[in-house]
UniProtKB/TrEMBL annotation:
Known catalytic reactions: 3',5'-cyclic UMP + H2O = UMP + H(+); 3',5'-cyclic CMP + H2O = CMP + H(+)
Residue runs in coiled coils: none
Origin species: Paenibacillus plantiphilus
Cited SUPFAM superfamilies: Metallo-hydrolase/oxidoreductase
Name of the protein described by the UniProt record: Metallo-beta-lactamase domain-containing protein
Gene3D superfamilies: Ribonuclease Z/Hydroxyacylglutathione hydrolase-like
Domain Metallo-beta-lactamase residues, every copy: 117-313
The protein's role, per its UniProt record: Counteracts the endogenous Pycsar antiviral defense system. Phosphodiesterase that enables metal-dependent hydrolysis of host cyclic nucleotide Pycsar defense signals such as cCMP and cUMP.
InterPro entries, per database record: Metallo-B-lactamas, NAPE-PLD, RibonucZ/Hydroxyglut_hydro
PANTHER family, per database record: N-ACYL-PHOSPHATIDYLETHANOLAMINE-HYDROLYZING PHOSPHOLIPASE D
Length: 369
């Protein structure tokens, strides 16, 4: 019996050590910092909460059906061949006095406006897990740009701390090239553990605003959750973002289930020239935290968007649907709702002198895979 207890103790201690000291897990905030959140309307019972009830518990029937679907498998969850990628020339960044957006796959993208370069959720690692060798690999063999060849980035903006959005390896390459990080509450503790100075991080609650040389960066609600290890669910905040410059208004949804916050954001800050709206990694069994593609189109309408660019797809397999089902469904729903939608390939830069007058010819590049 004693050897068994010793082995159990070793396993428990090893697990605790791993969870506390393995860098990609990030770092929990101090008790003092957590106590400072207690007065916030979106914080209760030692964790952040959504604006409306958002249960993530499942019935036994749902859990069994998910297990059945995983065992059954879906050969179309991944493309047959690696997805094509257009390389981004670092020298081309901020060479035009235009609003430009470049999608890197999944939710990672670059927005250039008013002479500034902003990165959103720049997860450009190989796999959205703390131990990449065990995770689902990126659909493309490469990423559109080498992070260590980027010019100086004015701002990096994160929506939440899940591994498919906040990536340790990407931060290690980026941290010496970024002037400032804008994040939801609590997420700064991860960045500081990874070597980013506190003075380079600004944390936001929903509706907080920062100003970057005349550009407004507004942290807005989302309907989701957070966490990077077994015991930190909802310990940091999740969000969407509004970007307002003299030239353009842009909305970035982050991850979110459908909810009334879209209409509220549209009433406060719309209309938006461009919405960057999640459309993938969904399932009816967890639709509270990830929209279905048809809801993506409705959310775009609710925030009063003019042009829709779907994100959160074509990066990794994180759900059970076909890899290209999100884009097929969202483009169909957009046509039916007469919504202007653009579907750039990975790494393609859209030069936008005027959102209102520009008409895009959407190429269904994913049908070739």
């Amino acid at each position: 019996m004693i050897p068994v207890l010793i082995c159990a103790a070793i396993i428990i201690l090893s697990t605790a050590f791993f969870l506390n000291y393995y860098p990609p897990f990030g770092q929990k905030e101090s008790a003092e910092k957590r106590n400072s959140y207690r007065h916030l309307p979106n914080y209760g019972r030692k964790k952040f909460v959504n604006q409306i009830p958002t249960s993530m518990s499942m019935r036994m029937a749902d859990l069994l059906s998910i297990l059945r679907d995983y065992v059954k498998g879906n050969p179309n969850r991944k493309p047959i061949t690696p997805l094509p990628v257009k390389r981004v020339d670092p020298a081309s960044i901020q060479q035009e006095n235009l609003t430009r957006v470049t999608w890197f796959g999944h939710s990672a993208l670059m927005l250039e406006l008013e002479g500034k370069t902003l990165l959103f959720d720049p997860m450009l690692g190989t796999s959205p897990t703390p131990i990449p060798i065990f995770g689902n690999k990126r659909f493309s063999k490469d990423v559109p740009i080498d992070l260590d060849k980027l010019p100086v980035i004015d701002a990096v903006i994160f929506s939440h701390d899940h591994y498919d959005h906040l990536d340790y390896s990407s931060i290690q390459k980026l941290k010496g090239r970024v002037k400032h990080f804008y994040v939801p509450l609590g997420l700064g503790s991860h960045l500081m553990r990874w070597g980013i100075g506190q003075s380079s991080i600004t944390e936001h609650n929903w509706w907080d605003t920062s100003t970057l040389d005349g550009i407004q960066l507004i942290c807005t609600p989302a309907r989701h959750f957070s966490g990077r290890s077994l015991f930190d669910r909802d310990s940091t905040l999740w969000s969407s973002w509004v970007i307002i410059s003299n030239r353009s208004r842009v909305y970035f949804s982050g991850d979110s289930g459908f909810g009334p916050h879209f209409q509220e954001i549209g009433e406060k800050y719309g209309p938006f020239d461009l919405t960057l709206m999640e459309c993938g990694q969904y399932d009816k069994r967890w639709s509270n935290i990830h929209m279905m593609p048809e809801e993506t189109v409705q959310a775009h309408l609710d925030v009063k968007g003019k042009l829709l660019l779907p994100i959160h797809w074509a990066g990794f397999t994180l759900a059970l649907h076909d890899w290209n089902e999100p884009i097929e469904r969202v483009t169909k729903a957009a046509r039916e709702a007469q919504v202007n939608i653009v579907t750039p390939s990975i790494g393609e830069t859209l030069r936008i002198p005027s959102f209102e007058s520009l008409v895009y010819e959407n190429v269904t590049w994913w049908k070739k895979k």
